[in-house]
Amino acid sequence: MKPEHIKEISLEDLKLYTCNFSNDNLIGNFQFGKVFRGKINGDHHVTVKVWMPQTLYTCFPGDNEIRLQAELIILTETRVKLHPNLPKLIGYCGQGQLAVVYDLNPIDTLQNFILRDDFTWLQRIKVALQLACLLQILHYPPPSSDQYLVRNISPAHIVLDKDYNLVLYDFGMFTGGSLPEVDKENPGRRHLHGCIGYIDGYLSWTDKWFPEMDVFSFGVILIGLIAKKVFIVEDHSALIGLDLHSLVDWWAIKEYERRKSVSGENASLVHQTLEADGDFEYADGVEVTKLAMECLEPSARDRILIDVVVEDLLKLHVVRDTFSRWALSRL
């Protein structure tokens, strides 16, 4: 059941907001559908997320209805709806088309930003820190709340605004918190193992989920941010004969070992164009690379915890220098 105070929006209004779901307004695909830019009353920018069957991920009858109900629960929980890196819910549509409308005006998805040359080193570290802090809040809530696990972290599920603040906008595999045990209620969900290319390929098949699995996904994204790498697959045909070294984590493990054989503990996976950035320091590149590799440890028990990730990111020169400049500007 939906919370009574959430606005219900008609399919006709959704079409009006998005110019009939025009491709010109398409932001991108997520695991279970598409997201569009929209406008309310001609000048209020919003984001419309629409659930629809995808060719890559199996969707059983009733799955998306459960996801919609779960999202309404999550985004109306006090500690969630006030978080700056989660979307603000305007309303939902449950008739004719399953959709939600966010008070959100993104520039693009993180998946698209990662490859851009104008996405700076500082902006990339800012995104990494915000994502780590968000996971820290979800994994280690206050005593009165329960832990959330995301389970399908992907750069396609993250958008950035004009100030390069991130917003995580998909909750289709969230578990814990205020949610019922939907995996038990709907066994069809058990076939889902997160987003291909960003999931711990070993542990996800055990049907047992741990915070360390979200940490693995974070590590893949962190590698992507510093090495300008993404993994994109549109349909099952792309998986036929897939070279595992095209996976970001597989590439990182092999390439890191190769570079360590040359540079020892000073090995870095930072892309050469980012090394030329004015805010980049090689020591930061080494530390971020080590941090990402600790997230990708094959054994979950050997992986770094997300609160330690946050601590280590805060120690980077680029973060401390930026904070110092900000503090001086406030004097």
UniProtKB/TrEMBL annotation:
<dbReference type="GO" id="GO:0005524">
    <property type="term" value="F:ATP binding"/>
</dbReference>
<keyword id="KW-0547">Nucleotide-binding</keyword>
<dbReference type="InterPro" id="IPR011009">
    <property type="entry name" value="Kinase-like_dom_sf"/>
</dbReference>
<dbReference type="Pfam" id="PF07714">
    <property type="entry name" value="PK_Tyr_Ser-Thr"/>
</dbReference>
<dbReference type="InterPro" id="IPR001245">
    <property type="entry name" value="Ser-Thr/Tyr_kinase_cat_dom"/>
</dbReference>
<dbReference type="InterPro" id="IPR000719">
    <property type="entry name" value="Prot_kinase_dom"/>
</dbReference>
<keyword id="KW-0067">ATP-binding</keyword>
<feature type="domain" description="Protein kinase">
    <location>
        <begin position="21"/>
        <end position="320"/>
    </location>
</feature>
<protein>
    <recommendedName>
        <fullName>Protein kinase domain-containing protein</fullName>
    </recommendedName>
</protein>
<dbReference type="GO" id="GO:0005886">
    <property type="term" value="C:plasma membrane"/>
</dbReference>
<dbReference type="GO" id="GO:0004672">
    <property type="term" value="F:protein kinase activity"/>
</dbReference>
